[in-house]
Queue: 2 jobs
Job 1
Amino acid sequence: MKQRLLLSCILLLAANALAAQTTLQDTIPETVVTATGTEHLLKDAPVQTEVVTRRMLDSYGGRSLEDILSGLTASFAFNEDDMGSQMQLGGLGNSYILILIDGKRIHGDVGGENDLALIDPQTIEKIEIVKGASSALYGSDAIAGVVNIITRKHRQEGLLVENSTRYGSYNDIRQHNSVGIKSGRWTSLTNFNYQHSDGWQNTSVEHTSSSEPPVTDSRNMTVNRHTNAQIAEQLTFAAGDNLELYLGGTWYGKRIYRPSGKYAHYDVHTYDLQYRNASASAGGKWKVNATDVVTFDLDWNRHAYMYYFTATTLVEDYELSKGTLYYPYYPYLPDQTQMQSDQRRTMASVKGIFHLPAGNLLSAGAEYRYDWLYSPTRVEGNIVSDWTAAVYAQDEWSHDFDASHSMHLAAGTRLTWNGAFGVKLTPKASAMLALGLPWRIRLNWSQGFKTPTPKELHYRYIRQMSGTYLYLGNQSLRPQTSNYFSLGGEYNRAGLNITLTGYYNMVKDMITLVTIPNYEAPAEYIIQYDPYRVRQYANIDDARTMGIDLNARYTTGEWSFGLGYSYLDTDANQYDSDHDRMKKVTIDGTAHHRGNCFTSWNHRFSPGYRLGAGLYGRVSSTRYYQIDGNGKGYQIWRIATNHDFDFIPSTDCRLEAGVDNIFNYVDRTPHGLHLGTTTPGTTVYVALTLRFKSGKKIGKFYNTINNNINSNQNEQN
Amino acid sequence: MSRIRIMTAVVLAALTLGFTSCDPIGKNQYNYNTYQKAVNQTVNKNKKNDKAILLVAFGSTWQQAFDAFDSTVEAYKQAFPGYDVFLSFSSAICINRAAAGENVEPRNFYAPPFWLTAFAQKGVQYKEVVVQSLQVIPGEEYTRVINYIKDFANNANGDLDDDYLANVELKLGTPLLQDPEADVKATAKALNDLYKSQAAGNIVAFMGHGNPDSYDTYKANIRYTQLEEALQTLSPNYFVGTVDMMENFKTHVYERMAAAGLNTSNKKVYLHPLMSISGDHGHNDMAGDDTPEKFEGKSFTFADLLAEANEEGEVEDCSWKVFFGANGSGFVCNDNTIIDKGLLELPTVRQIWMNHTQAAIDGEPLDYYHSKNPEE
């Protein structure tokens, strides 16, 4: 371990030494949109925005969004398991992180976790990350931050056909296919992707108490075998010079396989997990005049989560068609499915961006959202619903004092009206001051507001791990509110960009799962399930997360270097009425220190061949949890290479190959306890991408529907 | 126009198909029939006599518990040679996990209604069916056992042969501590015979389950108190506490030990489950290593633990072993003082259940209402 640490330090020092020797050079400006909903050069954005560019994605060769975000930023933590990715940002979990695809929020969760496999890495143009509350712009969920995935668009008149196949250890297959056609006023882009992994087992040992015989041949996997596929279609029609309309739809299916062993208490499973998603969208963009734009969108999403039975299984079930009959022992047979939750969301939104006199830019919009949850076995009454309406406005004002001194202010507010929790105003204000090259500072204050989800309010389910756990919703939950403050400085000169940001996020009435005494649970459930532990959603009175983020990037000629560090501290307290005192509560998954670094090199050896190579590292200190142990700290290093061949006319050919976790670090903590990371150890991958294009490039307007990004520039790096 | 109509018809048809295909007609009955058929086959295969005993337990997923159930079935077969003996779980989760798995013989502990239906099938139709509760106290779970029999006797699903039901002899064997005097006393004696050497000079603390206060409709929790009283007539070093019974958590047990002045000489506290099998509660709540989060990995004293007691007097997330073994408790309690045996693993205690079965066979009146009349 010491040797590895030493080697890691040498690698880091070498990277920094190389950085010092290289010639400084300006980078091409990056544009961002997420923080204000309007387009800005990255350096002028009023709120610090972290960007993962397509170039970084190409160099890294990430297999999934989790892989990309944990490898290319220091901000995120993941712990992939059956229930999802266990994503964290700034100490807060997935339910506080708003994930957008082209500005639209993704839909559906299992245990509060989004299924990030919905996002095919091959379709990502770039990723923008804005930390802190963004409820004023995006509404609920945006308390820890926003991750906006900007997807690639088909911009060329003519045909685009792309195939990308990535194959890696553990039979990891990532297959992506695109067909884009642009003819006259019509554009069609069809994406299909297929993903599969055999999963892996880091340990066959179960966590057992000292009174139990040890179990060393468990069949439980660290990450289960899984397969998913998605097909998506977007059709765009330029109805006139100033109006563009679109229609879109997706279908997604996933199955997570769970093998069984011989220990009924530990590794016997009688069902796999299955997801079925679908979405439909329609909308358009109206260019009111040369500068002002109005967009309108209508979206419908479905996320269904079900059990796929692999053995005969008795469950509680209900039959709605016969006046809600209750079956305490309903037998499901192998290959049948039972619905656990069917979440459907309908959203309508309209937004305008208007340039006003005296350097003002007004963004204003309205949204309506209806959530519907059908869950015959987990919700009393089978169906619950929730609606939220909101109007918002934001004004941005910028002024250049001279060539190097400028100020950019943005202030906005959202008025939210929720069907169950009433009306709430969430303001925000931010400022960027350019203090003369190369310094900039940014100040930000924003409020967050998040109403309890229907699941947090009404859900009730049993999870059998090592013992029976009963999870309970709580109908007396209050909405969560937050105040986020940040102060950041930026140094940007000659290819070197350093940002240092401190933040303080106070979350009032934060909702989290806490263990409650069995006698506080409804007695009929205690009798029926005899749970080992009862976990219930509860408001924590007072939670604070605070931290410092450091990001440094340096690009010179063929070399790029990056360094990220994230310090996090959390302090959460719940009023303990038994003792009339505040009781400290751990925010699950908190790690004080996280870091990443990379160095990459690109060189064109001949007109027909270009080589890229990179070294990437990520480290994390111990992750803390309320129960079932803490996750160990770790460090993981990766080597990635990419090879571009230009020898087939009209066709890009790209080969990627790499080795992840080169020091073969594996966390072999027994099943039932928390892991620091679920990495299987050293893995290798190889990927081949072929992209055939015919036709000519056209203007940007028709292809920027649904997001206000000009991402062409990123491709040119 | 006609094209629009055709399109509309196609869309409507597709929608209708989409909605109905999720819920095929007759699926419910098909599943029930398929499942019941498997239970019927199991009974058919094992039928050797015209009388049957059905043992009903909550269930477990622990191997030690499976072994205890298996040996109980064997003991019953030996003791009741004229009867076919079957064992049933009432917990669906336990049934599922016991039956599945790879490289392991399926263990079919079907739910009581399925066994009873199989007993009534044509070609089997046991003349006498004895349902024996394997519960410890006549509480909520026992009430469920009674309800299974009632539903069966009343042909609640309407799928059984009424003539058969009119003639079958249905009998009910009561829980271990059914009678507040005779059963409690017999159990105390059996336990004392086993553990009197431990109780001589040291302490034996039994951990029962108990019903939550809000669900102790039949006041069956009192059996734990009665058992402790009976045991203490044999030795003052016996105690009986519970996981779920109010005012009888481990802290209350400790208070009673302290009131008797037992916590001054570092006596050993032997811990023993007072449940039919040793499962989750025995291994975790009693003998596990659970320590309140704020003390994990730190040194703490017994007084620190007591200060964490909630308003009900319970120290949450703390096993009995950690609690009684904490520095300053005045006791010694550790892995060496765990007696990890369920009551069904103790032949002399198991015999009391078997005596109840015999009493039912011998004509003890089948009283569906017994446990529905709360005691004063």
Note: Confidence is low (pLDDT under 50) at residues 6-26 of chain B.
Job 2
Amino acid sequence: MKTKLVLEDGRVFEGFSFAAGGTRFGEVVFNTSMSGYQEILTDPSYCGQIVSMTYPLIGNYGINSQDAESKKIFLEGFIVRESSRRVSNWRSEKALGDYLKENNVLGLEGIDTRALTRHIRLQGAMKAAITTEDLTDQALLKMVKASPGLVGRDLVKEVTCQKPWEWNKTGKYKVVVVDCGVKFNILRELEKRDCRVVVVPAQMPAEKILDLSPEGILFSNGPGDPQAVTYVVANLKKLIGKVPIFGICLGHQMLGLALGGKTYKLKFGHHGANHPVKDLRSGKIYITSQNHGFCVDLDSLNKNDVELTHLNLNDKTPEGLRHERFRLFSVQFHPESSPGPHEAEYLFAEFIDMMKKK
Amino acid sequence: MPKRTDIKKILIIGSGPIVIGQACEFDYSGTQACKALREEGFKIILLNSNPATIMTDPGVADVTYIEPITPQVVEKIIAKERPDALLPTLGGQTGLNTAMEVARQGILEKYRVEMIGADCETIKKAEDRELFKKSMQNIGLDLPRSALAYNIEEARQALKAIGLPVIIRPSFTLGGTGGGIATSVVEFEEIAALGLKSSMISEILVEESIVGWKEYELEVMRDKKDNVVIVCSIENFDPMGIHTGDSITVAPAQTLTDKEYQKMRDASIAIIREIGVETGGSNIQFAVNPQTGRMVVIEMNPRVSRSSALASKATGFAIAKFAAKLAVGYTLDEINNDITKETPASFEPAIDYCVVKIPRFTFEKFPEAKDILGISMKSVGETMAIGRTFKEALQKGLRGLEIGHSGLDNKLDYSQIADEKIKLRLREANASRIFYIKYAFQKGYSIEEISQLTGIDPWFLDNIKQIVELEEEIRVTSIDRELLRKAKQFGFSDRQIADLTGSDEITIRKLRKEKGIIATFKLVDTCAAEFEAYTPYYYSTYGQECEARVSSKKKIMVLGGGPNRIGQGIEFDYCCCHASFALKEAGFETIMVNSNPETVSTDYDTSDKLYFEPLTFEDVMNIIDKEKPDGVIVQLGGQTPLNLARSLENFGAPIIGTSVSSIDEAEDREKFSKLISKLNINQPANGSAFSKEEAVKIAKTIGYPVLVRPSYVLGGRAMKIVYNDKSLAEFLKEAVEISGEHPILVDKFLEDAVEVDVDAVSDGELTVIGGIMEHIEEAGVHSGDSASVIPPHTLGDEILDTIRKHTQAIAKELKVCGLINIQFAIKNDLVYVLEVNPRASRTIPFVSKVTGVALAKLAARVMVGEKLKDLGFTEEKTISHFGVKESVLPFSRFSGVDILLGPEMKSTGEVMGIDVSFGTAFYKSQVAAGQALPTEGLIFISVKNDDKRDTVFLAKKLCDLDFKILATKGTAKVFRSNNIPAQVIGKISEGDKGLLDLIKKGQIKLIINTPSGQRGQSDMKYIRSLAVMYGLPCITTLQGAQAAVNGMESAIGDALGVKSIQEYLGLNKE
């Protein structure tokens, strides 16, 4: 079926559908990971976005039931150069196209994804529509322009859990994970390090969280604009200094806001599994998995108290902060990987260490 | 960490001659390293015996030794140059092994030389099977079950413990020589014995067979601060059991989930740390069980390898350059990625295309050897293709291979191939299996059946099936725009589409252009377009956007030589690089087109622009359409670009240099013959035959023996000397197939003539000789296989002057603009012209190294209109030293093949010996080629009757030099009657095993055997094979033997000295 992508600035790409039908709107971004499409699809942080994969051959190893990062697909559309007709992997259970269809997600293939990537690099991430319907470019463009986009939008409420739940029953350290769109691998990494993990909705008030008497609180990754998620930022302000806190991605941005800083939108963000990050404390470089469109402006923070711990070596953006006295730290990238390199896992160990020091 | 300041001079050891398993990728890596380190202010001392390399150009290293790569030579260089450090990881296995031996002998310690990059401990841990296994167990990684054996008894014990089938891998060898898979006890005994022999330390690993598993490779880099990056993952199309050098390979990995890939990545990082490669690159191989996902580690190369060259070209990440910088103390984040400029080297390339590498085989040169592939590498070259899909890259790769396929096409009619044959060709891995997969699909085989037979992953097979299905669609439906576009995106060439639709290439080209289906060029940028790229390195695809940045500068395009093969290799790449360097210097924008990932020419900074594309009319013309170059150079890349010249010119390509019609005049035998007659130059009687009958008739008129061959070939393909009607008939069968509509050439063969090669450069007015080379072997041995010497050592001035005169006359007549190579034969003081090639020859780099005149650079400048006078090259250079080129032959790879030299070229590479006397230079060339001539001991001589008289003088000399002589009855009788003591030994065919025992015990140090007649004695064939197996020097021509004795005499007389090329050429700045 003919399918097209219409960008906010009027550029149109025509290809074919390999999944569900209809019309969807979202911010179009590109991801440069060469493997891990299943993890990307199930990462709640992509809520409200259309993701284009720069690697052209996607779907080769199918979909399995172990590699999902959440219960469903939250993104609006998925774009690939070529979706594999045949899957091949000993763990594969179904084909990519079928999986998207089951989740009612649109899939577009056969377009020049490199041209799209270059366009986004030069013009910035922008709003777009994918459609399998017979609509004129002009009509679609109008609709795209009217669509909400990401800026100022709280998408956390779309992806967070409805009520608290326990990931596991036992563990030495009780950790509350504030689910802003959490990836399962964060929970797995905590469990691996002897944590008892309770996942709570993003809206849960600070007092209620403290009632659970956690030894540490983790603010997870998630979609959308951090400035729109005022309720979590407000909660954070109340929790800072009381219990050790670890923020990842959106959690990092909201922590930045809670500490009095600002956030801003990046031109096209970082979405990939090959970003070099330097830990400024050790000088060591880690290849990290990243997925974010907003960034904390570290200059806006009180530098005497907040330490800049990590730097993205590609564009020199700040990607980690730490406050010794308040016992908190956060990173912009994904120490839980999935997809991507495992190198930054050590940050979970630092979180444990922080909880140990009472 | 900034660079080290405690070291100033670094010694780099190259990889020596091009052999199977070690090709020009090490010239590429070595050249990059030399450049990178000199940029940092280090003084580089280089040792490499291969003159055809860019790295041995006098300007690349500070001090360059073209000497044999042996520990003795290394010690002499160290004593003379006193380097602070030795970088052993850039010269392949040869460089690594030599460095290890030098260290073991205590030489490094004695002269306080530090090994940088990887130290001895590390190399041992990675190369020594047992230590490697232990290391892997330490870090909890899985390996195939295995045991080491040092003798056949231990090997049998190991087999008992592991069970059949097993793989036998000898330690410390090149590219897996001597290994194999044993499925029976008999096979096991045979392979194990051979393996023990071919291992430098008589050690083999007997290992659980994991044949049929999926095979992966990861390219890893590490710096002093323990930062590690994975440059590239590679998935082998062919499963375990086929040497990765002989496998079709694909980058990046296609069928691993991220979970599995990350597990492999973690393992790689753990391995590089455990083995302790402190800085630089390593290649790590894994196997994965397709049913269970069990992952095992296969091996690690603690050095830059063939795969790292491939990974560099596939990603744009300069592995060798970075490895060199890391070795001197930099860290990954301190080095910038040249391609993006902004981002550091401490990242992992993200690629947005699919890369396919396809090996190139030359089994046609060794008809006695089977084209079956296994764990011992057989391919002589490779091509790489880039596309946006696997299908596109595969088809581009297949046409880039230049074996007569224009993609995954239909050379054979599938319906005519029997099922048994299909099944056999699928089951037994072989050079043409990829086509048999296609035939199988056409015959209705399912993916599962084919996967079962081949062990190839269903994902790859389905992609091939898609090609087959689309092909059928093209065949049966009328082709519309949509379908044409899809076909191009699937990698179909215009010619393929033409063949399917009963049209021709040009019509399809026009049709698709009318329909607006035009090749677009995309960048290889290391980052999937996330950042802007500055280095223009392109590939073509059929997308919506073209990224080629066409400048308004004056630009010249150089067409490269494609995949290495016997007859066309590094020498031509050398010439192409030189042209690029020279024209860049002269202010032109240079554009390189080539498809060979091993080469310096495909390094992204050799030319201003690089198009990594197959060298076919279609692909080249697409680039010309886009770039509109002011000139296209076709005479430097060997036969490949020359074959395209006519059609490119017909389409308006501005071919510069010698005109296409002049090239044709030299290649067309009829026209050539007339031209030579016109100039009153002698040529062997000859004729061109268009039919079998005609060939026989011509042969009769001329008189046997005659030299027969197809026209337009390189490397003497299918060239033969025939002595009678019967063998002529045999030849004709094969030859007619090869030359198509071209005629068969029949020349009178001049027996026992001296052959001479001349390389010259001409600007249309002035022709200057670059070098006159006298062949050691007589005419009839292909010039590429013959040893040769500059200056000629037996020819008189009168003859040389005649040769010079003829060269001038021919160049003038052909209006040569650029290079010309002429082959002469001298018999009874008459000079005959055998062949004229108005193009770069294989000997250009050799001549340039010996004389110091960069002929290819001059040729390039001349082609753009400059005059030799203005370039300062007006007369032939005289030199006071001798350079000897010796060829290196691949016989040890092809069991059952006789090692006799003939008109069909068989060598893969060459070495050079240089010294002030001919004898010493020759001796060095032999040592460098791995034929270490003895200075004492027993020599076995058996020569044909014609040679017996001349051999007497040789034997006498050997006797005077205190050698002992062993001979067969006839030869011994002649010696004795001339008062030369000789022991007699019986013939093997008569049941005497004495000679075999002596060879096996290593008591014979040299064999001199000239075969009689066309076939040679059957006894001798066996002895020669044995010599190859035991690495025993074996000389098969009388002239070769004379030179050898000359060399041995020099070597006995005084110890070999070393002298740099800069000293020989008077380039020493100090």
Note: The longest helix of chain A spans residues 113-123.
